[in-house]
Amino acid sequence: MFNNFTSLVQKAQTLIDTAGLTASPSKSPSKSTLFQHQFRLPDSESPLYEITSELTLPLPRSGRQPQDANDVSSQLRGNHYVGRLHLSEHYICFSTQGSSFLSTATTSSSSSFTGQTHGTGPSGNGFTLPLCAVRRVERLNSQSFQFSLAITTSNGYRDVDKKQSTNPNPQRLIVQLAGSRQQCERFCDGLKKGLRAAYKDTQNLNKVVGELYSEYHLADTATSDKEGSTTTQRDPPDTGLGAIYRYPGDARKLRDKAKMRLWKEYMRENGRNATIVRQPTFHKLIRVGLPNRLRGEIWELTSGSLFLRFQNPDLYAEMLKEHEGKQSLAIDEIEKDLNRSLPEYPGFQSEEGIGRLRRVLVAYSWLNPEVGYCQAMNIVVAALLIYMSEAQAFFVLSVLCDRMLPGYYSMTMYGTLLDQKVFESLVEGTMPILWDHLVKSDVQLSVVSLPWFLSLYINSMPLIFAYRVLDVFFLEGPKVLFQIGLAILRINGEELLDAADDGTFISVLKTYFSRLDESAHPKSENPKLRAVTRFQELMVVAFKEFSGITQGTISEQRAKHKDAVLENIENFAKRTSIRNLGPDSKRLSLNDLGFLYDRFYGVLYERQQRTQMIQQEMDRKKKSGRIKATEVVSGVSGDEPEMGRVALGPSPTQMDYAAFREFLAGIAKWAVTDSPSSPSSHVDGEKASYFGNSMRSRSLTISPWGAGPEPADHDFMKRLFRKWDVDSVDTLTLQNVVTGLAHMKGTKDIMANISYFFDLYDDDGDGKIDREGILSMSEALLFLSRRGFETPFPAASPQSDARMGSSIEADELRIENRDEQFLSSVSAFIRRCFEYADADHPSKQIDDSTSALSNFGIGEDEEEEEDEDEALIEIDGTSTSTPKPEHASSPPNGASTSETPSDSASSLPRRDPAAANAALDPSNPLSITLPTFRMLVLADETLEHFFDRALANSFRLSDAPAATASSTLTTFANLGRFTPGVGAGPSSPLPSTAGVVPPGKGLRGVLDNIVTDGMRVATDIRRRMDEAQKELDRGAAQEEDEEDEAEPDERTPGGAYGGDADQRSVRAADRDLLEGAETEDVSSTMGKEGLLNAPGGDGKGRTRAGSEEVGEVLF
Amino acid sequence: MAESTGTPTPRPSSSVKLVLLGEAAVGKSSLVMRFVNNDFQENKEPTIGAAFLTQKCNLPNRTIKFEIWDTAGQERFASLAPMYYRNAQAALVVYDITKPQSLTKAQHWVAELQRQASPGIVIALVGNKADLASPGSFPAPGDDADGVEANADAEQDESDARKVPTREAKAYAEEEGLLFYETSAKTGQYVAEVFTAIAHAIPESSLKGPRGVGGQTNLGRDDGARVNLAGPRETGPKEGCAC
Ligand SMILES: Nc1nc2c(ncn2[C@@H]2O[C@H](COP(=O)(O)OP(=O)(O)O)[C@@H](O)[C@H]2O)c(=O)[nH]1
Ligand SMILES: [Mg+2]
């Protein structure tokens, strides 16, 4: 990932981690995640209390007689399990996996369940009891050295109430707490509270449990005590399509009846569904394969989806109802695959089966639109539906996508790719010879193994065996997929070593899968060995030989490969996206596009991260440590911090104005603010921004701009944003940005550049820019130039020839000079704008245009520039080019042929004062047209250069000199390199002029002064206009005008001043403005008008502070 | 059965990894089905990631065994594509002549392959569902083999579902140095030709050593006329092996 983001996250994590350690409330959320994963509980649960304890269960078949609970000896007979008792909001859980979720517990002790589980899965032996399923809790033998609880569950309880005879033996769990009296009492208090609160959940529980087959099955045989009695009052619950269309496989061969009997017995003694207690037999019964009617229910139980269903029993029906009749892409995709999901199963050849499949997939696509629908889900859900109801399958699917197969079915399928990488690396580690062979023969393992994981072996193995894998998978978790995969390769190792290409490799495995039911040792003498099927052998190899592969192993491996996998996906996404940018993008180089892509998404991503980090920091008590916890559990932090990363799925693609500013600040140094707010200050300036509430970030305590420079907020940037926002949606896509930049940077045509700039200010698109626009334009020119340009300007200054004694000094001089040059050009521009503007009055306009035409009807300019185009001819009625100082053109009025003007403007004819006056007269609306604008720009060498190259080059993309070192297609990963102040040299993180000015040299101050001066020129003009307005208002217009006119006249080129006198005079005049009363005047004007923004664009008061600001500006 | 043409001496055989790419529903699986089984039917096989099939193709002087990876359709599976085109010696990039967008997508795939796949990869651009174009727009069976080019003018037909002019796609293919065909998996039109052309275009040097010998399908160029017949075409033993 990009460097500065990584550091951000690290910072966030340390913040969070230390927070979690120091502030230790009774519950620590990072432990919550772990707790939820161990017991497969919903996200709402957190470990409130825990205590070491011993669970005592009656010996099988010994509990037939009512036992005296207070009889210690009866307690001693039975199975004892030492472990930990946990209490959460809605559950009381016991597990022999002694994980501790106390806030003081180490990570390894709170994640011990991810290690070896010896076939019991993470929750070990014990129980996971919803509190609402607890009927009674008694305190037993209150001797001081023992603290025992007898928990009576709802299982069988009701029976006692209603039909005294049938089940005399309500389920009672005896737990002896081992802790200080105080600990025990605190636990009990918590339990009491929980029980009281849980009462209201009983209805949900009964509703859900009532739909379970175990309930029906046990109750049924209980009521009809005698065998053969067929007094089944109620319909059996929905146990999937199998109940209608037969379950796959031969029930007799699968010994389904026997399994059913064993389960029945087990459940009679150990409770059923919600109240079931897990003893070793439970896990063994799962290992040998679940019976048809109970399969769905046990899956639900072991995966934890049952608990989700308790929480919200009607969610499935609601999802369907809420979205009834709606259409979506997911629905279209689902529809295409309905007929291709286990098509050989009769249930899916009927509308009934297809209908169920459709409903579950559609409901889930609404529940989780980020995943929507992914091929392979159809197969998984189809397989589930053979054994469970729609609602059950819906919740199992949800658990699969969220927890067991994180990222498998996501938009980028990063989880799938990641686990393939993990699998390959496990193969490499456990079967190095096979791995070498694969590498040598150029066979990519994942093309073979990907479907195994993505569809949980359902499409690879015969169904009955795939279900056996699923049985264990739901109990033990995703590591099972890896263990089975490794075992498959191990068993077929020799044959695979002979396979030298994809084809042979695949066919070896295909053959193997088709013969799973055959004997693993057909030639063995030993009949027992002969009876072992290949599938049994597979299970043994998987769970014995690869017992070392634990959930912890997988998480570790995932964490290790995550970055590489995400980066690959991101590179792929990037290539694809760049190719999709359309014809305009071709104007930019591939490197530039890559850079823009990174920069664009980088900004969006970082902003999202920052918002989240800040959010997290704000409620760190609630969320602390979650990131880390999920990583321990899954190896992928599925939590917020990485959301928005392209490879992880849908991420923001729209850039609002605030983000755009940040984006610009990274690629153009003029977009960096001059007055950064101090990092810790409370920033909500955005709220006042032009785009109102477009800002997503909140008030921040961390710099809202992250590690990058703080962007300016200038009218020019707003205009750029609006111009690029072609759909007027107040946000930009990458496409918008690329197209926009392609027009500004990708064209080598100065005319196009000039008109593009003009259009930015032609608000109503009528081809004219009014007085306000002219001023805004001038401000923009100063704004853009205030840090100088990368591209050297044509050396028109004497200083440029200066011998460089001390290079820095020379540089400074040069820069100063260059900026002065620009400044004077802009002031001249403003002045000329008003001189040559067309009054916005019909008759006047004609006059003006004719006079302009006659004035500019010069045909004899010698220099034909390459940029010459017809457009120019249109304007002037002739081809003119930028008059160079050396080549004084002859003004048609013949006024001053003998002049030696150094200012290019001198080559322009003067208007008669009256016209200029009219232009300045605020009561006389005026505007300049594109041709006029062009003429004015081309009349000035500096401006010409600005539009020819400097403006375009002020956007620094990948091909900029500073970045050439890494101008191969940049990736997300190396983006960080560019972020801190692209305009600045690599060594200087601060935006500084042309990267040559060492910070602290004070040069910035000089520049600021100059820029401020420029601003003052604009202000001055505005002031004079205002004065003129006032004069008019006073009805004393005519005579006074001369006074106003005097100053411009003074400086008008072609007057008595030669050489660079004009420049000097401008500066002199401007300097005047800086001093004394005038300054007051200016700033007060500004204050009143609020129109002229200082370089930083921060509005009022900036200008006044201009010169004192020097120290501050340097951060 | 297969016309083993009685060639007594077994030709050298080499396998070629070929990947099919293209937008969903352009007919990739159908093309493979036609090539491997000479069959056209709704695809009932769910494809997870990619389906793997093989088919042999006899050239005058050698036999090419295609190992075909038919990638899955859904857009999100695109990020798995690199896994399948890695080391591929040939690629069929398919679009649907009735869907201009699918050609754009195909162009992206071409760019992706040119940039990311093995350097010498032979790419064929295939416009499928040519049977949906009006007869004038597609060479009728028995037409001159040059027909593919001849149809360029007849694009205005009323009943014509064609939206991508042959000329346009062909120009693009030429520019990029791709083989180009318009096919119909439904009628079998030019399907075998595509594969044969690819077999011919694979540089001898990039062929891996011989791998296993198996049934043969005579798909030599000379058989082009037979392929154009609408009736069932005889094929060699089906070596297809779906996974
Ligand atoms: N008319 C016509 N339909 C075709 C042709 N090839 C495929 N199809 C149909 O297009 C749809 C998608 O085909 P499929 O092979 O699954 O496309 P894939 O997603 O690219 O593999 C199916 O309904 C096919 O019957 C063809 O050449 N002509
Ligand atoms: Mg397909």
TrEMBL record, chain A:
Coiled coil: none
Acidic residues: bias regions: 1038-1048
Domain EF-hand: 749-784
Positions of region (Disordered): 220-241, 877-923, 1027-1115
Domain (Rab-GAP TBC): residue spans on this chain: 289-477
InterPro entries: EF-hand-dom_pair (IPR011992), EF_hand_dom (IPR002048), Rab-GAP-TBC_dom (IPR000195), Rab-GAP_TBC_sf (IPR035969), Rab_GAP_TBC_domain (IPR050302)
One Pfam match: RabGAP-TBC
Basic and acidic residues biased stretches: 1027-1037, 1061-1074
Compositionally biased residues, Low complexity: 895-907
Gene Ontology molecular function, alphabetical: calcium ion binding; GTPase activator activity; small GTPase binding
PANTHER family named in the record: RAB GTPASE-ACTIVATING PROTEIN 1-LIKE, TBC1 DOMAIN FAMILY MEMBER 2B
Name this protein carries in UniProt: GTPase-activating protein GYP5
Organism placement in taxonomy: Eukaryota, Fungi, Dikarya, Ascomycota, Pezizomycotina
From TrEMBL, chain B:
Acidic residues bias locations: 143-158
Pfam families, sorted: Ras
Region (Disordered): 134-165, 209-243
CDD domains associated with the record: Rab5_related
Gene Ontology molecular functions: GTP binding; GTPase activity
Alphabetic keyword roster: Nucleotide-binding
Superkingdom of the organism of origin: Eukaryota
PANTHER family in the cross-refs: PTHR47978
UniProt-recorded name of the protein: Ras-domain-containing protein
Lineage, uppermost ranks: Eukaryota, Fungi, Dikarya, Ascomycota, Pezizomycotina
